User: Fold these one by one.
Assistant:
Number 1:
Amino acid sequence: MTSPTAQRKDDHLRLALAQHDAVRLRDTDHVRFVHHALAGGSSSSVSLGSPAFGWPVPLYVTGMTGGSERAAEVNRGLGIVSRETGLPVAVGSMGIVLREPATLPTFTVLREENPDGFVLANTNANVSGTEAAQLVSALAADALQVHINAPQEVAMPEGDRAFDHWAEAIAEIVDSVEVPVIVKEVGAGLSRGTVAMLRDLGVGGVDVAGRGGTDFGAIESARRPAGERGYLAGWGQSAVTCLIEAGDLPGVGAARGAAGGVALLASGGVRNALDVVTLLALGADAVGVAGTFLQVLVSDGVDALVALVQGWLEEIADLMALLGARTVADLRSTDLLLTGPVREVAELRGVDVAAFARRSRWSQV
Ligand SMILES: Cc1cc2nc3c(=O)[nH]c(=O)nc-3n(C[C@H](O)[C@H](O)[C@H](O)COP(=O)(O)O)c2cc1C
């Protein structure tokens, strides 16, 4: 018998796949690089290492699933892909393991396929420090993602309705686990104030996980009998606008060499290597992908996803060479044109958009 939680995991996979839309415009489409025709370097000199957690590449698979047979198959595939490509990889929320211990193998299958890679556990913020440590240990995880997802919960028929304990819970989890804690949204973004608070709570990283890709407001509303609360679709900020407003916070962003700094990760709606490079240039230390990779894995299989990821890594190096960036940190000195709705949001949030357009030495003449 499938438990209600396992059924929800299958609903999420089904509805996220049905919702996937690579064509719709994203905020990354409103960010353009200024082209400097003599700025280019060479792809062979590019170092793809991420400033976050010593990751070999600035790309990772962010948390999706576990808890059902179908989810186990997805996690097996993601384990193989991450082993073959070197990408860090997360499982989906492991809270179900605390209530239904028999589901643990649907998560650990990923670790078994990738025994030496960087693997992230995942939980909500309703677990105790002891429980969080138990989940990390069960997966032999190298880091723990904690998702904070109030819009999803409000849209979800069986969702939580109390969120006022989350900051305290995160502090307890940070104290209790021995690996870095990375707090993330699930597609509605983290504001500058939220990132600052998480930094002060002692987290090792944040993933702004913004709107524009997988949309849990829409998914949870679709799980309701008459699609109620569909107005929560599209709630929040994109990764682009989150990075623009939080990227200069003191102590945030390992690329800026902050001592004991909080790694700044970004995800939400990433479709291709240019989206990745754009988010890196806006200040991300590494970029996460969920929906796009899930789509390829389920439609075309493991080998196709391995090839796609390898292709993206090559394209990221080529785009960095085009932009004259040898490292991920160098991308922060490229000139970016923030246009259209991105410019509008940035200005409303008090960001100096002109400064982004003149960051490079090519603009200092
Ligand atoms: C099928 C599916 C299930 C997900 N489940 C979780 C989860 O359990 N925990 C979590 O932190 N995020 C979860 N996410 C959210 C992703 O980590 C990510 O924040 C979001 O999908 C935006 O990225 P994308 O646009 O690349 O899909 C899930 C995403 C998908 C597609």
Number 2:
Amino acid sequence: MERSFDSWEQEVIRCIRCGACQNVCPVFKELQAESTVARGRVKLIRGVIDKDLELTEGFINKMSLCLMCKACVVNCPSGVKVDKLVEAARKEIAEKKGLSPLKNLIFRLVLKNRWVFNTGMKAGSVLQGLVFRKGPLGQGMLPRMSLGIDKRRLLSPLAAKSFKAMYPVVIKVPAAKLRVAFFTGCMINYIYTDTGRAVINVLKRIGVEVVIPALQNCCGTPVRINGDYETAKAMARANIDAFLKEEVDAVVVACGTCGLSLKEEYAELLEDDPVYAEKAKHLGSMIKDFAELVVSLDGFEDKMGPLPLKVTYHDPCHLVRGLRVKEQPRQIIRSIPGVDFKEMSKPDTCCGSAGSFSLYHYELSTKINDHKVEDVNQTGAEVLVTGCSACRMHIADGLNRQGVSVKVMHTAQLLEMAYEAKAH
Ligand code: SF4
Ligand code: SF4
């Protein structure tokens, strides 16, 4: 039986109201309001469970003001799963109040249906010039009109051709040491095809054969964290079917959020499903982040040429606190000859993106992002490397707003550059 909202009382009573979460919550740092820190959110949720509070607009707004960054979770002495509580509250809101017409359309018609999504993205890549113009530093595009998005919001353009349309389903490697399936995620498939290309080139170079299952979908995270569990479950089942039919040693993911979803959250979502509960756990056991997979293979550092670059690294929240991948990307960066690696003072604080958070709460997300840009700036780096496409886009937006010329790329792209430097 699916978990009821009231059953989360067991979790809320674990909060001892110590206030340790105040020191780490990026939203509280900006707003300084108790209702926007973990302790305050937990109290509000308890109020609704105890029937002292209603699902008012104020409550809905406070639940939407969470980045789901897990900073409070890993610093909480009682281990309160605040992000799970906020998600449960959002599910309760979606069930009792319904989704907005826009979310309904995007989640249930577009994201859930691969063909509709793909067709929409194809049309968007042709028509985007009508509604967007080039960004000042040439890294992206800015809306010409409001479109419900802040006109200062730098977005990366949709690729003319999706990543999956550019590659065959199997990328063969002679005498491969491993065979993996690649979960591309939406942003790599439709926007950052350069990251996808780098993942393939790097894996080929180190002797890994790659399968790109054609029937894979969006991982469903935007749908799940907005409370639409039925759609999220349907998307999870479709991905489980698409990946478990491949005969592979692992499933590689190049985004912390997609990775966490496939590794842990599918199993939670489908724990009561008689057919898919075990399959979800099995898929979860096969998930490897790109950097995690690369450093586990002997000799990945042998074939690099020098890159005389000053580089820093941003830890995506779900990669570092969800999948606990912290050292592996640094190991890759440090192993490249010529790279001068400069650590930020707070490399693992959230950049303020949190997917749709940066669209709905742009002003707040830019304030959070400004601290990241400051931190990047003080390193003097020319390149910022990260392991998540949403962070890549949001930090590029922040750098663009402040006129800072730092190139932002995925770990796989830096490694691809190092291999190419050896080849030339
Ligand atoms: S750190 Fe944990 S226990 Fe302490 S107030 Fe925050 S949520 Fe409650
Ligand atoms: S998950 Fe992040 S944004 Fe949400 S309450 Fe915790 S620290 Fe704050």
